[in-house]
Every structure is written in C-alpha cells, then in structure tokens.
Amino acid sequence: MPIQLTCPHCGSGATAADQHAGQSVLCPNCGAAVVVPGPQEQPPYAEPVHAGPPRRKMNAGLLILLVVLAGVVPLFCCGGFGLALLLPAVQAAREAARRAACANNMKQIGLALHNYHDTFGSFPPAYLPNEEGRPMHSWRVLILPFLEEGVLYDQYRFDEPWDSPHNRALAERTPSVYRCPSAPMADETTTSYAMAVGPNALSTGPDGRDVDDFPQGLSQTPAVVEMAGAGIHWMEPRDWDTTGPDQPGSYHPGVVNVLYADGSVIAEETSDID
User: Fold this and answer.
1) Alpha-carbon distance 51 to 106, whole Å?
2) What is the pLDDT of residue 254?
3) What confidence tens digit (pLDDT) does each residue in 114-168 have?
4) Measured distance CA(164)–CA(182) in Å, rounded
5) How many whole angstroms separate alpha carbon 117 and alpha carbon 211?
6) 226 CB contacts (<8 Å, ≥6 apart)?
7) What is the CA 120 to chain-centroid distance, rounded?
8) Does the predicted model carry a pTM greater than 0.90?
C-alpha cells in the first residue's frame, strides 16, 4: 500500500512504495531528500508541540482585591503608621469646615442686625434695662424675628426678667445660629457669641446706634465676637465689655471670628482685638 508523505521543505505531497519505508527518497517537486515513514509511524515533522499546561485567566474580582490589599497591607504592617499620617489632615479639614460654619453663623447674625436697623432706624442695643437700669433682656432675643424665629419671639415675655420661670421654659430652644459648631454639647443653652459693648463698638449698652454714629467706619467697628467658655445663656443680657479685662476666645486654634458692623467676618488672633 503506497505511503503518503509530505515534504518538510516545500510542503508538497507525494507517495512512496511500501518497500521504501525508512529510506530516503527525493521530493519530486524540490528534489530534497525526504525520509519515508513506516505505515504506522507519524512523520517527525508532524509531531505535536506541547506548550505546557493551559494558562488560566485571573478572575477580575480577585485582581482588584489583590491591588487593594497591596495598598492596605503595608499600612497595617507598619503599625498603622500610614493611617496615623492621614488623621491630622482629616482633623484639620473638619476644623476648617467648623470654623467656616461658625463664620456663617455670624454672617447670619450680621444680616439680622442690619435688618433690625432697617426696621427700627438703629442697631439693637446690647440690652433692654429694667426700671433700675439693670440689663433685663438681650439683643439676641430682640433680633429673633430677623432670624426666622418669630414664633419663639412671640412666646417670650418682655414684662418679665429673662430668667423668669416662663422665659426659662424657652431656654432649651436655643437657635442653632447662636452656637459655634465646635462648642461642646454639655450645655446647649449657652451661646458662643457676644456683642461688643463700648465707645468704639456696636453698642454702648442700653442705647441703639445708627450707622452714622461710627466715625471710624462700620468696617472698623466690632459688632459681635466669639466668647468661648464664657457660660453666657443665650437669653442672658451679658456681653463683651471692650473696656474690661475679659477677652474674646474661640474653640478654633489660634484665631477668633469677629463680626464687624458692615457685616464682614474676619478670623483674627486674640491679641489683635481691642
């Protein structure tokens, strides 16, 4: 039976007789020597090439997990050193946000003061006195209608002291605008802000002042300052005497927010406030 073979040199097919099995014959196409295989043999050039075990594709989820672990594991291996480096930055960002929110509170208060001025012709006095001339009601109560707290204002009794049983019952309803976001929550009835009272401040005490009463200009007249830790009840007629020993302070490291009579809020060092 003729043996089929393929020339490994030119690829052309040919046949050879059985008696030539194992012998070399010439390719009728290119003339190259070709070994005739036995009937049961496969030509050497036809043997399959094994490329090793098949390669498996990595699961995409597993690949992502390995990448995440590659970034996280070193942090734990270093005793959380990497996380420790991130914490100060996170805390600083949070404090910056709280300080900005505090400044926004004061801007709302400044707007309320100007709306009061537009309505009554003067800024509110620091306090309304009783018959003996002592402070009885605070400016923080007087501007409630201009802070969208008209209901609370209507429930307050001006014919009674600020700390009368009836008015004290309103104490827990402290407007959020009167508290700095960094203030501790131990006593939510205290305020973080006090009016500046003095000859060169927004108020002289029981008297309201007009915009023309500030020769130094509104932008140079302190109106409200932060008074952290002063323990001032938000309805209490007590503020910052600019001629006294007490100084403004805040819960923000290194600075104190100050509202000026023109409505601007500036973060200043405590030593710059006088």
Assistant:
1) 76
2) 87
3) 999 999 999 999 999 999 999 999 999 999 999 999 999 999 999 999 999 999 9
4) 29
5) 8
6) 102, 180, 192, 193, 194, 248, 249, 250, 251, 252, 256, 257, 258
7) 40
8) no
Domain 3-45 has CATH 2.20.28: yes
Kindly list the domain boundaries of the chain, sorted by start residue: 3-45, 90-272
Point out which residues pair with 128 in neighbouring strands.
Answer: 137
Handedness of CA 220, 224, 230, 236 (dihedral sign): positive
Mean pLDDT of the 62-76 span: 49
Rounded distance between C-alpha atoms, residue 56 and residue 62, angstroms:
13
Which alpha helices (DSSP H) does the chain contain, by range? 60-77, 81-120, 139-142, 150-155, 165-168
Residues in the chain: 274
Nearest to 34 by CA among 42, 22, 51: 22
